[in-house]
Amino acid sequence: DGGITQSPKYLFRKEGQNVTLSCEQNLNHDAMYWYRQDPGQGLRLIYYSQIVNDFQKGDIAEGYSVSREKKESFPLTVTSAQKNPTAFYLCASGATTGTQYFGPGTRLLVL
Amino acid sequence: AQSVTQLDSQVPVFEEAPVELRCNYSSSVSVYLFWYVQYPNQGLQLLLKYLSGSTLVKGINGFEAEFNKSQTSFHLRKPSVHISDTAEYFCAVRGSHGSGNTGKLIFGQGTTLQVKP
Q1: Which residue of A23, A24, A25, A43 is the best one to mutate when testing the B interface, meaning the one whose CB has the most B CBs within 10 A?
Q2: φ and ψ at residue B10, rounded to 5 degrees
Q3: How many CB atoms lie within 10 A of CB A15?
Q4: How far, in Å, are B15, B22, B38, B64 from residue B18 at the CA level?
Q5: CB contact under 8 A, B109 and A58
Q6: Which residues in chain A are contacts of B44 at CB distance < 8 A?
Q7: Best CA proximity match to B110, nearest among B57, B62, B39, B56
Q8: Do A43 and B90 touch (CB under 8 A)?
Q9: What is the pLDDT along chain B (117 residues), one digit of tens a residue?
Q10: Which residues of B touch A33 (CB under 8 A)?
């Protein structure tokens, strides 16, 4: 079954802790994206990667880091430098036409 | 720079009535346009897209949208809504190939469609 998976569905972060959100796709897409969604603010791009071993900052990259060691995987780390991490995080992968397909999301909450 | 404006943050409508969700964009290059739907606590699902060709695009769940280049609009319509259409709808734009665009989508703020019985 082709698609994008994100885990966990819910994630709790303690003060000063780094946490990593997983995103995997089996659509054979070269491009992958991470978005943050806050109520009333739409989607904001955190990082994106157009090819393995390469990635670029989006509009709100501060406090986040990513890696792209495999085509299928694009994990996002929310570092302790991100002071307001509570949000819904969405991963997407992109076809050559620019159509992006989204995973089910991870909700990050701060304890 | 590209931008997307969804003109209504909330649209209440009665079941079986028609609905139009408005989207305007600004761009100095030719574009691809998309509508996505998001149900509570879920990811975004592609409703329809305009890449080229016919300006009237049909999507899933009975939705359609019309690309109007002169008015830089891409409004979403459905002739008769159901309770199950209650969700958040997002319009998005990206530059078409050859414009130097990286494939990044620019999203509008979203429109909440509330279908009432």
Answers
A1: A43
A2: -140, 140
A3: 7
A4: 9, 13, 20, 12
A5: no
A6: 43, 90, 92, 102
A7: B39
A8: yes
A9: 788 999 999 999 999 999 999 999 998 778 899 999 999 989 999 999 998 889 999 999 999 999 999 999 999 999 999 999 999 999 999 877 655 556 788 999 999 999 999
A10: 104-105
Is B30's Cβ below 8 Å from some Cβ in A?
no
**What pLDDT, in 10s, does the model give residues A39-70?**
877 899 999 999 999 999 999 999 999 999 99
Chain A CB contacts of B36 under 8 Å are 102
With 70 as the cut, is the pLDDT of residue A2 above it?
A: no
Say yes or no: B59 contacts chain A, CB-CB below 8 A.
no
Token duo for residue A73: 């995987």
User: Residue A93's Cα: distance from chain center in Å?
Assistant: 10
Q: What is the mean pLDDT of residues A65-91?
A: 95
Which tops the pLDDT comparison, A98 or A77? A77
Distance separating the N- and C-terminal Cα atoms of chain A? 35
Q: Report how many Cβ contacts below 8 Å link chain A to chain B.
A: 55
Q: Decide if B32 touches A, using CB distance below 8 A.
A: yes
Dmax (CA) of chain A: 41
